[in-house]
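In this section we walk through a basic example: taking a raw amino acid sequence and producing a predicted 3D structure, encoded as discrete structure tokens. The instruction is simple. Fold the sequence below.
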Amino acid sequence: MSVKSLQGRDLLELADLSAAELKNLLQFAADLKSGIKKPTCRKVLGLLFYKASTRTRVSFSTAIYQLGGQVIDLNPKVTQVGRGEPISDTARVLDRYLDILAVRTFKQEDLETFAHYAKIPVINALTDLEHPCQILADLLTIQECFGQLSGKTIAYLGDGNNVVHSLLLGCALSGVSIRIATPADYQPDRAIVEKGKAIAIDGAEIIVTSDPVAAVEGVHALYTDVWASMGQEDLAEERIPIFQPYQINSTLLSHADPEAIVLHCLPAHRGEEITDEAIEGKQSRVWDQAENRMHAQKALMASLLGTD
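The resulting token sequence is shown next.
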């Protein structure tokens, strides 16, 4: 399965991919995971992370090593960018050293500046607006569980954050209907919702509601994230009573399809957005989902580097 059309490109948001490119990329990731394909690319990946990370950092590092490449951890605290060097200068210098760059930062605009000044492929490893690499793993996990994506329905419960922004775009491009249940004041960005509706294929629907029970009725997957994202920790306590009705637990699960799976992008605050019973139960695919970060990102990097 070729994804040559991605060679040399950036992935700044999930909508940078077409429906066909996303489908091919997910199949490529599945082929890598199964061992059907074993591409090699002796390239150097730079990780420039302004935010804390476990899964993203380790999965990217392991993926490039397994492809035969190397990784350089560009910790902002020990590089000049942390002392105020302009992004444009840093980007142009890194472009001369690296083959590919993954950036985890706050503002989407900063990521776009890196991509503008660097000729090498730049990957969004998380911004406050989107988290596209996480959703590649999520869709791969759903595809593994059900054999296909088109025609499935997923419910996301919680904060209308960067994860749900990318999730609704990925679902739209995959023919997956998504119901997003959030408190009224915490809904996803309206412009991204409209973008998702504009690119949706195969009759995929995007519904935003404040009713968690209606959202999970008969769905094939339930998905949640923390109620206070990185940088919002001081708001965590006040958000708990607001978001409590959106907790994934046995009661909400009883309204879903009997074969429904449970997803969480991690780290999880057990007892808040999800119960121990749900994350550790037989319907949980959270650990497969975490592993699939590595396979999906390996496929992405190989494709952007033209070594599929």
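Looking at the output, two observations stand out. The chain has two domains: 4-130+293-304, 134-289. The radius of gyration is 19 Å. In the next section we compare this with other chains.
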